[in-house]
Structure formats: C-alpha cells, structure tokens
Amino acid sequence: MADVDIPRDRLSGPLRRGSVRKNVAAIHISGKLTLLQRKLSNVLLLNAYDELITRATHSIDARTLCMMVGYNSNDMDTLREALRSLVETVAEWDMLDAKGRQEWGVSSMLAHARLRGGVCDYAYSPALAEKLHDPKVFALINLNIQRRFTSGHGLALYENCYRFTRTGSTGWWPLELFRRLMGVDGSSYYESFKHLNAKIIKPAVAEVNRTSNIVVTPEFEKRGRSITGIRFLIRENPQLAMFDIDDDEGVRTSQVYRQLVDRGVGDRLARQWIAEHGAAYVAEKLAYVAGRRGVAAPVRYLSAAIAGDYKAPEAVPAPAPSPEAGEAARLRAEADLAERRRAEARDAEKAARAARFRAVEAVASRRNPTQRDADRRLFLGRLDDELDREDFRRFGWSSALNARAIFAFWEELEPDIFAAQPGN
Questions:
Q1: Tens digit of pLDDT for each residue in 12-46?
Q2: pTM flag (> 0.70)
Q3: Exposure string (b/e) for 332-347, b if CB count within 10 Å is 16 or more?
Q4: What residue stretches are annotated with the Initiator Rep protein WH1 domain (predicted)?
C-alpha cells in the first residue's frame, strides 16, 4: 500500500497533529497502482479539492485530465482502465482523531467514475473525502514535479516522504510496511533485502533526488545481521526550490488571481499557475484568451495557452522614415524590421517543432502497448550519449534534447507522419 498525495506544494503543515502522536495522518492506498494511475488519482484530487466536502460529485474535461497527467493521448481505453483501477483500489487509514481516540477506516479510492460526452464525472466516499481534505492529514504535491517522474516506485517514494519534509524524517518503517508502500508485497523476490535494495530502494531514491524538490537518504535498522526497518532522512533540494508554491495570502489578493477565479479556475490551480509562471505571464495569457472569440471551454483553452505560450500575432509596421529622419533613423527602422522578421521566423520554427512533437505523440499513442514498448527500446538503442538516453527516459517522445533524432526515427517508421505540416 502507498500513501497518496496530490499535486500541490507547501499548503499543509506537518502531518502529525502533535509531537507525541506518532501514528496520525496515515492514509495508505494500494501501492500496486501504475505510474499513470498514481498521477491520475493526484490530478483528480487536485481538481476536486476546493469542493471536496461540499459537493458529492466532481467533473473534469477528459482531454484536460489527460493533459494534466502528462498522457497526451486520445486513447480512452487506457483512461477507462486507469479509472476502473481507482474504483477497485482500497484506501485505509489508521490514526488518532481530534479527541485522541484511535480511528480506523477503509473505503474505495473512488466511489464511482464515469466518462460521458468528453467529461469525466467522479466521486469520493464522504468519509474518505473528509480525510483527504484535512491539511493536517494529507500533503499536497506540485503537479509540475509529479509530471517529471517516469517510475511508479519513484513517485510512490516521493509521495510517502514529502509529507514528512518539515519533520526531516519519515520515522522507522518495518520492511513489511515499506514493501506495501512500494506495491511489492507478496513478491517472494523482494523478500530478499538484497533484491529490494537493488531494484526498488536505490533507483527510487535516485529518481526522487534527481527529479523532485526534496533529497532523501535511506537509513537501515538491523536486528542481528538482518535488516528489519528503514527510514528516510529528508531535506529540501535547493536546486529545485523553484517548484515550491507560495502560500501567502498576498497571492489571493492579487488581481491576476481574482481574474483566474472569476473565470472558473480553482484556488489551488490558480496559485500554482502564478507560482510556476509568474503573475505577468499568466496575465498575458488571460488577455490572450479574452481576445479570442467563440472559445467553448475557456479554462481548458487558458490551460493550453499557459502550457504552450500562445501569443497574439503582431502586425509588422512598414518602415516609413521621413526625409528629415536621416540615415541613422532609416538604418534603425530596417534593423528593427529585420529583428521582428527573425523573431517571427523563430516563432514559426518553434510552432513547426511543436507540431511535429504533437504528430509523434498522436502516432505513438495509437500503437498498442507492445509496439510502444518496442519503439522506445529501439530508439534508446540508437542513442550513444548517456545524457541523451537519460533525457529520453525522463521525457519520452517529448524529449527536446533528442528532437532531431526522434523526428528522423518516426519518419522511418511512418514516412508521411509530417506530410500534412506547412513546408512539407
């Protein structure tokens, strides 16, 4: 079983309600979730969080859901399977309540899920919703960090460690519990600590430290010659502190925040966008969307504009220096025009590159799981530089570092993949 956290950062205090209450804030959810399913559960919770205990049912556009998970695909079969797994997943908690009484409970992770008309409707049981909404019980994780993970075990370790950031340690976990948290309980192979350490602990620790805003260090508890327990020391990763989200009330009083909320963006998502991109950038995208006519889903379009850095086309004024302006003015006007044209060319190149990435993602997503796995293995085998290989492992077919190699690879597999694009 594994703790589930949702994408938002620094919104909750320590998950212990008192320094001596060591067993509070323990919500465990089946660790056998895939990486996609784990990310999906976090995004659904982020979407519902503001109205978690005031509304029985929540909804989100299915394509927006896929985009936020980082699964850029129209493969609804995969999304259905992921939702089905969450309905079949058991959430269990065992903690002290506000009066110090022991409380144990169990619930399915989702009470129901439904896809209809391009919209995903879903619900939590009232008891679980109450626990998930309590900031002292449940830590929130930044979506931008979640998207960087490529391993389910790495994300599971991060979720289980992040909630203890302020205390600096997870405390000791028996190895049996740790195996459940990582979803490998019941496997005779991982009963061996040697295998558990080599295949689960070391790779997961490496990914957390490389990918997230915390650094974890494992320590082991011995009884005789046997390892019986594990804990993780936790400190902030200064290199990735940019992902931390400011929780000051000043954000909520800003004009950009109010504009986002007025347009239907949730509190946490609004603050996340401002923290990740800056108020000026978000204001620019708000203005861009406001200037577009006939937008059927403004929040989804705004999300795409922020992610894709949409810009309004600028008119290029013809230089018309007066005779009195002199040669210097004429040269400046020509230089400005040339720079604008270079900028337009760069923007066009970026747009064409983005279109090629979308074409690759569309074709790759239509292939069956066996083919997708074979494609990735074949492409990795062509990369000689370990930096290139690592970037592809992290970002897949969206790897900017391997753009030329990716486009060439897919043109070999699908000769007409880019035929419909301008300039081809």
A1: 322 222 222 222 344 555 556 778 888 888 888 88
A2: no
A3: ebeeeeeeeeeeeeee
A4: 20-161
